[in-house]
Amino acid sequence: QLRLVESGGGLVQPGGSLRLSCVASGFSLEGYIIGWFRQAPGREREGVSCVLGYTNNTDYTSSVKGRFTISRDRAKNTVYLQMNSLKPEDTAAYYCAKARNAVLHGSSKFDPKNYDYWGQGTQVTVAS
């Protein structure tokens, strides 16, 4: 059974850091695009970052570039999202997801409709 489980969320002060983990079971992350998304109350789910299958190329939404880093550990079948210099506007539930297709281009990489398996989410709250 294919499953994604996120962890690592919590309460952090502005300027702080967190590392989110997304552990996959039932399939190998290797050949798939894995994305991180977030959703704040009353807002639509938005793509934050993704790592492409095999190439390990990465992409980020503009609001997190230079602050967030996505990485993949093949041995642990895990994708991480290192979040630094956190801001109150980063507060949201964060989800990892597997893309339906092996290749996505441009903004389609950040469209939730292109992802078919999702974790349960982990809450990140940035507040003083």
Nutshell version of this structure?
It contains no helices and 11 strands.
Would you write up a description of this structure?
This protein has 128 residues and is mainly β. It is 0% helix and 47% strand. The protein is built from no helices and 11 strands. The chain has strands spanning 3-7, 10-12, 18-25, 34-39, 46-51, 58-60, 68-73, 78-83, 92-99, 115-118, 122-126. The strands form 2 sheets. Strands 2, 4, 5, 6, 9, 10 and 11 form a 7-stranded mixed beta sheet that branches. It has a 4-stranded antiparallel beta sheet with strand order 1-3-8-7, with no helix packed on it. A hairpin with a 4-residue loop joins strand 7 and strand 8. The radius of gyration is 13 Å and the shape is globular. The model has no long low-confidence stretch (mean pLDDT 95).
Instruction: State the distance separating the first and last CA atoms.
Output: 40 Å
Mean pLDDT comes to: 95
Summed up, the helix count is 0
Structural class: mainly beta
Strand content: over 45%
Helix content: under 10%
> Topology as H/E string?
EEEEEEEEEEE
Main sheet makeup: 7 strands, mixed
Radius of gyration: 13 Å
Total number of strands: 11
**Uncertain spans:** none
Keywords:
128 residues; mainly beta; 7-stranded mixed sheet; 4-stranded antiparallel sheet; 11 strands; 0% helix
